[in-house]
Amino acid sequence: MELRVSRFPILIRALPVVVVAVLAAALYPPSVQAAPDLRAPASPTKPPAGYRLSGDSVKGIAAGAEKVRSERRRHRRFTSAVYTRGPGRWQVSYFDRDREVAQVRVDDATGAILEQWTGWQVAWTMARGYEGAFGRKLNAPWVWIPLCLIFLVPFFDPRRPFRLLHLDLLVLLAFSASHVFFNRGDIGVSVPLVYPVLVYLLVRLLLAGFRPRARPRGRLVPLVPLTWLAMGLVLLVGFRVALNVTDSNVIDVGYAGVIGADRIADGDALYGPGFSRDVERGDTYGTVNYLAYVPFEQALPWSGAWDDLPAAHGAAIAFDLLTLAGLILLGTRLRAGPAGRELGIALGFAWAAYPYALFALETNSNDSLLGLFTVLAMLALTLAPARSRASAGARGAAIALGTAAKFALLPLAPLFAGGTGEGQRRWPGAVTFAAVAALVLVAAFAPFTPDGGVRELYDRTVEYQASRPSPFSIWGQVESLDWLQGAVKAAVALLALLVAFLPRRRDAVQVAALGAAVVIALQLTMTHWFYLYVVWFAPLALVALMGPWRTGSEEEQQDVGDVSVPADRPAVAA
């Protein structure tokens, strides 16, 4: 059957639903509680006003905690400090010199020990497995598992059960195994389980970039009609926005974006001490990150506290929907006509159904912003070869803006500077890319450079992120692996430079594969890795893994005409 009617009107008719949902996010955001205020009691022997227990009695209760008794034997110096922690709650912290090594929380009314923590879980509350701290109801099996199935089903071909796409999509979901242990607070298991998934994706995408297979047999969407897929996409978008409205929370990342936007609007310094009492080092991102929040903070002003933060919700929804729209458009640019429309809707559906894209939306983080800039860079790539100079400049602007947001896209600069290797136009294009990227970076950072100059800017952003300790990587958990981490960093730097030149000629899908591989390789070196970072490479990975497969009209042409179709890669639509 020939595809003659565009399915995009279905998506256009759904826009009012999306707009209403975004407005609802602004008007009815979910409630978020600010961090509790720790206060030392005025007297160790008398209960503070509104409390039943005294500080000394709470210390006595905490001293009997099993983990405290065990930790005490490991330290020559083991001092304690007691605090009230909001109404009806106490906290006792134990120190070895200046380092907190154990923590106990006690209920004032009953004297019961509510929580006790040692090791990494003292300093890192996100390692404790608090229910709903990240992702809220998305973590419930009755939400997560159906989403995984929805992500897989349209692309499953029962006639070819062992086709590679099935494995690729399953591996993209395989972060879930690690995530289960993270939600239980068992990061000793969750962290190692991430690396096999990252390594598979790295190897798979490098092969797709350097040694692409002949176009595989079978359709990308084997059985599901395109109309159904488009309708499913609309429903998924509505579900995602509704879940953000009714259930999501704003983590410190989104909060920092709102604070930075407020400081920019007020003319205050963006970088330096005193950024915020709640998020002291919230100035660790690039200027574009905070600038991206300015329209939302101006429309939905920050109250000055870690409250509902409607601006953070609006920004996260916008980053997510723009990434989705960009993927749909990218599909139409990679292939012309009905084949491009099918590819675009398939890419948009995959993003909308992918649990980790929704995970970023449910936490209202800024991470989808990086995915958006990779999609914009790919769209710029599709301007070549007809408009090579414009393509190079647009690629330079997109990568520079992404770098000026969270720095992680900088390793993609050599790859996108080289583009698709347009023969003699490669070097002029690279020069244009570099010139535009440099101008964008200067324009982004120059107005916000702190009094300490570029050095202070570097120290508060790149240096802080690169040097902070974290248990969320094998490098942070096993300090003796420093030498190996250094070697991997060197290999990643070499890879980032290599893909600027090899392969000498590549199509857009290969560029996407190599770009995703470089970002994954960078993540393998990071001392702090988290599930939110999956969306940094997910758009490129989806393009690389789905792009080679046939879409409806191409498959039908082969079947109807009974002629062989050249095993070329999908070309960029002129």
Provide a descriptive summary of the structure in words.
By secondary structure, the protein is mainly alpha-helical. It folds into two domains: 38-125, Roll (Nuclear Transport Factor 2, Chain: A); 132-560, no CATH class. It is 58% helix and 6% strand. It is built from 24 helices and five strands. α1 packs parallel to α9 and α10 crosses α12. The two termini are 25 Å apart. Residues 1-34 and 555-571 have low confidence and may be disordered.
List the helices and strands and how they pair.
Blueprint lengths: L7 H20 L10 E2 L15 H9 L2 H7 L6 E7 L3 E8 L2 E9 L5 E6 L1 H4 L17 H12 L11 H10 L1 H9 L3 H24 L15 H22 L4 H15 L20 H13 L10 H25 L2 H17 L1 H9 L4 H14 L6 H19 L6 H6 L7 H20 L7 H15 L6 H4 L4 H17 L9 H18 L8 H13 L5 H10 L13
Antiparallel strand pairs: 1-2, 2-3, 3-4, 4-5
Helix pairs in contact: 1-9, 1-12, 5-13, 7-8, 8-22, 9-13, 9-14, 10-11, 10-12, 11-12, 11-16, 12-13, 12-14, 12-15, 13-23, 15-16, 15-23, 16-18, 21-22, 22-23
Give the beta-strand count. 5
Report the portion of residues in β strands: 5-15%
**Mean model confidence by pLDDT:** 88
Radius of gyration: 25 Å
Number of domains: 2
Contiguous low-pLDDT stretches (5 residues minimum) are: 1-34, 555-571
Oligomer: single chain
Distance separating the two termini: 25 Å
Main sheet characteristics = 5 strands, antiparallel
Structural class: mainly alpha
Report strand order across the widest sheet.
1-2-3-4-5
Please, how many helices? 24
Report the principal-axis shape: globular
Helix coverage percent of residues? 55-70%
Order of helices and strands: HEHHEEEEHHHHHHHHHHHHHHHHHHHHH
